[in-house]
Each structure stands twice: as C-alpha cells, then as structure tokens.
Amino acid sequence: MVIELHDPADPRLTDFTHLRDVELRKSLEAEHGLFLAEGEKVIRRALQTGHPARAFLTTPKWLTHLADVLENQVVYVVSDALMEQVTGFPVHRGALASFERLELPSVATLARRSKRVIVLEDLVDHANVGAIFRSAAALGVDAVILSPRCADPLYRRSIKVSMGAVFAIPWARMDDWHGGLAALDGYDTLALTPDASAVSIDEVRLGEKAALLLGSEGDGLSSRWLDQATERVRIPMSPAALKNGVDSLNVVAAAAIACHSLVRPSSAGSAPS
Description:
By secondary structure, this protein is of the alpha/beta class. Helices cover 29% and strands 19% of the residues.
C-alpha cells in the first residue's frame, strides 16, 4: 500500500524521526523493538533474513528500485525535501525501512553451535561495530558476542557500515559482564592486546573452538578479561612503527587481521600455554 505524505509531523512517520539524536533513537528503538535500514541493498538483506518490515519511507524515484519487495508492504512516499526534514539528513540511498527486531539467541546457544567467535567488550562507536561485523562475516567467523554495554549492531549507522553483514552472522549479547566469559568454557580465548610480551597471534595453535576478545576503542580489554583469557595475543608491528611510537592498530583494522588469523587452519604455530 503506497501512501503519499506531506506533513513532517504526521504520526505515521514516527519510526523515521530524530535520526541524528543518538540517545533518543536508542531509547525509542529499544522501547518499540525496532531498527532502521537505509538503502536498497541493506533493506533487501534485512528482508531476506526474515526481519518483519513495519514501514518503508522513500521518494518517488526510488519506488521502482524496490518494487519487487514492496507488494503488501506499507510504503510512505515523500518528497526529497520532506525526507530530509523528517530524518534530519539527506538520504542519498533513497529509501529507509523500519523493521521489527528478532529475538536474539543466548550466548550459551551461540557458543555451543559455533567454533570461531569474536567477543566485543564495551565498544562505543556504532561504525566500528558495523565494520567489525563486516570483517567477521567476510572472513568466515561463526558468531559475534557482545558485552552488555557494547554498541548496538542494529543501530542505523552500524547496519550501514556493515553493508547488511549484521544480518549475515549470528550474534548475542551477554546479560552479565562480570561472568560473561564463563559461557565460553571449552574455548581457547585469545585476548588481543598491544602488550609486547603477548604471543604473536600467528604463532598460536588454535583448538577446535576459539574466541577472539576485542576491547574498547580507548582502553582496550579490561584487566578482568585479560586475566581470564587462555592466551594474550598481539599483532606484531614493524620495527620502524615501534621506533616511532606506533604499537597498535585501531580496533577495526586489528579485528580484520585477527579474524583472518582466527579462521586459519589450526595446524600452524604452537599450542596455548
């Protein structure tokens, strides 16, 4: 059902308002159990992975691009100017859609079903979370587990940066940070750190199940998680980098490299101590 709207205050547009207010959007989306997808490719991925659509918001010229998936859907059509007025920014990819969130699996369920997982502790940047999901999905990681305070993978910015990869890889959120790693019993847990005393990640032989722990953008992993890990691992920096005071990569780059090591054949290197 295609409906033309002309009033930015129309209550039917509520799902698509205040998109620049991160804190307000987080509370609204949590309260109503929804998330937003932006752009044709991401919207299609959300639909393909079984997320029920609530409504679509688009401009006339983008109707034909999504015509095959809009049948029996609620579609609000607005002008370019009204689109920007409602959302607070130019929507270059032409369409937004609001979706209902699916129930997440438990951490224990994901741990039981998976062999290679990454665990994110307290990352606050939605773009970083989205980029890490994209690397994890591309490189063959089985699942992602988040600490309770980690940024939301289904926040619009996360989804956009991941190019929909957040729909391609299972994920779960811990209920409890303090004892959260207990669900990974039976896993080799590798804590990524710039500490020079840590083992190079390429030298570690991985068991049947392995989890890579990644810490927050500023402080890295907490001392508690570092102490609980099976092994502390690092990505070696070049001598020139170390000489110039560069001892680590940003968390997105580090995650991509470490994910590649995580999924490599387990025959290389030496077993964790």
